[in-house]
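Quick one, tokens below. Sequence please?
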């Protein structure tokens, strides 16, 4: 990876602009509610499945885009302490929570502030072995979903892996109804394409190969899918 490095936990480069994003707990709830609410949506199961597909290895560089309070990045580092895990999020308040959790856990994740479409500027092309992102794309407008996926493709080395967990195709009436809670929090315009099952085609459009929905976990807020894909080459 090309570190734009300074002290871990400080911003490496200023964001291009202070741009709008939906905060972790949605438009109406405070960030402090995020972790307690996440625990109610079978978090251990889908985070564990994401980690299983990542299967972190020593010295591997793993980037977590939209890392939020850092739960996924910290889990990956706990599984393989010799991996270099980098968490990126545009929200400075949520990064404060992530840093605190890392301190308590004695983990050494690098936390960077940045939007998902600034990834290449922040990390450098071809710098990561694996890229992960969880519960981010459903909160983003369609052009941003595309820009983040394009950025993820570019920051991965050839042969690098993408593992995403997010609300995907809502297959049943029950799951579509449950997903309305998320749509209320995050807005219908950004979330509906996910519910309609757009993610696999967006991932493929960004240039990834071997795209598949590997897991589907039903939760009280709709089903969360784990998608895996590869950057060609390597
Ligand atoms: C629902 S939270 C998920 C956090 C974390 N990935 C997890 O699994 O708990 C969504 C996160 O995405 C971040 N986010 C929103 N828009 C983003 C964007 N355009 N690029 C990168 N991160 C973004 C938010 O700040 C928030 O922390």
């Amino acid at each position: 990876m090309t570190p734009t490095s300074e002290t871990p936990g400080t911003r490496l480069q200023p964001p291009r602009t202070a741009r709008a994003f939906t905060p972790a707990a949605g438009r109406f709830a405070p960030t402090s509610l995020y972790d307690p609410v996440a625990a109610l949506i079978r978090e251990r199961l889908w985070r564990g499945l994401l980690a299983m597909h990542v299967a972190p290895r020593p010295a591997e560089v793993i980037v977590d885009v939209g890392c939020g309070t850092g739960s996924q990045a910290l889990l990956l580092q706990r599984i393989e302490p010799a991996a270099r895990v980098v968490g990126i999020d545009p929200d400075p308040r949520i990064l404060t929570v992530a840093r605190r959790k890392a301190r308590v856990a004695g983990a050494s994740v690098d936390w960077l502030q940045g939007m998902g479409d600034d990834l290449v500027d922040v990390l450098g092309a071809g710098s990561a072995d694996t890229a992960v992102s969880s519960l981010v794309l459903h909160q983003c407008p369609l052009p941003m979903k595309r820009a983040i996926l394009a950025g993820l493709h570019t920051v991965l080395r050839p042969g690098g892996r993408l593992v995403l967990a997010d609300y995907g195709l809502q297959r049943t009436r029950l799951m579509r109804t449950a997903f309305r809670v998320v749509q209320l929090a995050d807005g219908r315009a950004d979330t509906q394409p996910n519910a309609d099952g757009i993610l696999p085609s967006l991932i493929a459009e960004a240039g990834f190969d071997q795209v598949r929905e590997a897991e589907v976990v039903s939760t009280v807020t709709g089903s969360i899918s784990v998608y895996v894909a590869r950057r060609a080459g390597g």
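Residues 1-17 have pLDDT under 50 and may be disordered. The chain has one domain: 31-230.
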